[in-house]
Amino acid sequence: MIDNPFTPVFGGKPDSFFGRKELLARFDRALEVRGSDDRSLFLTGTRGSGKTALLEQLSMRAVASGWRAIDIGAEQALQALHRELAGYDEVTETVSPSLEVKVLGSGGSVSGKSTARTTRYEMADLASLLRKAAEKEKKGLFVSVDEIQKVPREEVASLCEAFQMASRKGLDVILTVAGLPFSYEAIIHQDGCTFMRQSVHEPLGLLDVEEVQEAYRASFDKIERLEVRQDAFGRLVHLSSGHPYMMQLLGYQLIEQVARRDSREIVVDKAVVEAVAPAALDSYERRALRPLLGELSERERAYLRAMAQVADNSLLSSTGSVAEHMGKTAQQVAPARQSLIDKGIIVSAGYGLVRFGVPYLRAYMAKPSEEEANLAQLEAWGI
Ligand SMILES: Nc1ncnc2c1ncn2[C@@H]1O[C@H](COP(=O)(O)OP(=O)(O)O)[C@@H](O)[C@H]1O
Ligand SMILES: [Mg+2]
């Protein structure tokens, strides 16, 4: 049996990481050079574009270079960061590591006082905690914050202020945040977030053809007996649409399909790729598209369905036709359109035109909903 190098677990950490080489190289450089702009990075992308996977990579690289890495999610982000940093603070050095940290809002009055097991902090304490922690690190301190669009604004401001202060003191700190596309503009214009305005904004789009080819080649090279014919390879690259999760799924299905063959050489031709594509697409729809739609409002989903119906041959939809198809005025549907653009799900393609920004979403939205399919079946059987 062959070891499958692909790991299509959505949201899980992939065994092999594809593309983004230029950014990774810049990050490696930032780990060495204090003056690098890349010491503050703002990754944005639609759901499933690979933000979390990239944060993991950066974190791993930081650790490999001797940095301390702290990775936090949106849920009680500041509290989590305080907890990680607290071990360095004089007040808490003696306190049990399982201490409970309570971060008070600006209205809070107790600060840095330990009782038996509870230490209370104000958000303003973050700056000094961070500074002390960074001073004690040999190489530096890397902090990543995922889903930044969900972090309350005052927490983001505290985070910015703390990093601003630490950088000003010449300490080795890197802050990398990731969020949905609209979060960048929202945060850089927020009070107290000048620090983010100087960050490098890295929108994560689809991988380009060369990146996909290189990634697939590297993965296939790990399997000795495997030969992927040129037309099969081309088809595979095309079907991936440069979406890293679709790449994982297609690769995984392909290898599973041929893994049991015990011939000396395993030859993959185009027919094999065509045979596994539906299973890959099915998983992609269930694990990537369906949750993406689940996070949207009914109005936004209705907008996408209408867009799929009125799309022309070049896959563009006129915003006027979308509204008309929905039986609404352009003004009535404008908020849904804007919010879909802000989330990176659709893209404005010139005046009065939009197109889908996520692979395979158009076809998915054109399909009858489960309810419709159900009704059609009942009708067909005369039930
Ligand atoms: N650069 C990449 N290389 C390999 N797999 C990736 C890459 N980016 C994303 N993936 C795959 O896609 C899945 C979804 O990516 P994720 O980082 O969770 O997206 P996001 O955080 O933007 O919603 C991951 O679990 C992983 O399997
Ligand atoms: Mg994520």
UniProtKB/TrEMBL annotation:
Pfam families: AAA_16 (PF13191). Residues 17-168 form the Orc1-like AAA ATPase domain. InterPro entries: AAA_16 (IPR041664), P-loop_NTPase (IPR027417). It comes from the Bacteria. SUPFAM superfamilies: P-loop containing nucleoside triphosphate hydrolases (SSF52540). Gene3D superfamilies: P-loop containing nucleotide triphosphate hydrolases. This is Orc1-like AAA ATPase domain-containing protein.
